[in-house]
Structure formats: C-alpha cells, structure tokens
Amino acid sequence: MEFCKLTSDFIDQTLQIYKTCLNQTNLSESTLKITNSYPYNHIYIAKIKSQVFGIIDYTILSDEAYLNNIAVLPKYRNQKVASDLMENMIDTCKNQNVKSISLEVRCSNHIAISFYEKFNFTKLAKRSNLYSQPTEDGWVMELAIK
Q1: 23-52 pLDDT tens trace
Q2: Of 42, 75, 55, 47, residue with least CA distance to 14
Q3: Could you tell me the sign of the dihedral formed by the alpha carbons of 93, 94, 99, 102, in that order?
Q4: Reading across the β-sheet that carries 100-106, which strands appear in turn?
Q5: What count of other Cβ atoms lies within 10 Å of the Cβ of residue 98?
Q6: What does the alpha-carbon distance between residue 7 and residue 106 come to, in Å, rounded to a whole number?
Q7: Model's pTM, two decimal places?
Q8: Class of 1-77 per CATH?
C-alpha cells in the first residue's frame, strides 16, 4: 500500500470514490482538478499499484487545518487504511506547525465519530440542520495538536 498526493493519473478513480463513498455525485473532474491545484488543499490517495481505494482531503490555512473528507472503498475497510491516511494527515499538520484540525460529521454517523475520537478529536459544538438529504445536525470536532 502506498500513500501519495493525488495526481492527474488518478483523478478518475478518486472521483469515483467521492461519488461512491461520499455521495458527491455533482463533483466534476474539472472541479476536483482545480481543488487539487490550490497549494493549501491536500488530497492524498491510498493505492496498490494503479488501484486507488482510499482518499483523504484536507485544507491547511495558517496554523489551522480542516478535514474535508476521508473515505475508503468498502472492500478495503477495516484494514487500517483510514487510520493510516489520518496519521499521515496529522503528521503533515505537525510538520507544518498546525495547532488544530477541525471537521464536521453527521450526529448519526457513530462509526465516524468513534473513529475520530480514537485520534483524540473532541466534540466542540452541535450545528443544527448542517446537513441535507436528509436534514440532520452535525458535530463540530477538533483535535488540538501539541
């Protein structure tokens, strides 16, 4: 298994993960390419040879980071892929002197909340009606980096 920054060679497979795992059906190839081109955006993929099966997408601005998305294809779940992607992001943030990483997660997504808590993210606040389809509240979670 290899982790690397998203390149144009893997845009199509990465786009499929966004659509399949994250239900981002409106995301286009051009939007993903533009997003990936910004220096403050970081999109990393997990792959074996030419097969992409996991992604992590985060933004670093000054001393703060925001986790936009993390996803692993169902066939590769429960194999520490998401944990390895998360550790890679946290290490990158530490190396860039980031002081905190925040994220938002659906209140009903207990699996994701438990996953984030394993990395010492804590719930800061609940945002009403943060999500749509279906409408749902979301937790704001944060990891303080020392």
Answers
A1: 888 899 999 999 999 999 999 999 999 999
A2: 55
A3: positive
A4: 2-5, 41-48, 51-61, 64-72, 100-106, 136-144, 122-131
A5: 20
A6: 30
A7: 0.93
A8: alpha beta
Instruction: Yes or no: say if 43 and 13 are a contact pair by the CB < 8 Å rule.
Output: no
Neighbours of 58 (CB within 10 A): 24
Q: Following CA atoms 78, 56, 117, 132 in sequence, which dihedral angle do they give, to the nearest 10 degrees?
A: -100
Token pair, residue 132, equals: 């749509």
State how far the alpha carbon of 60 is from the alpha carbons of 50, 51, 99, 144, in Å. 27, 27, 10, 14
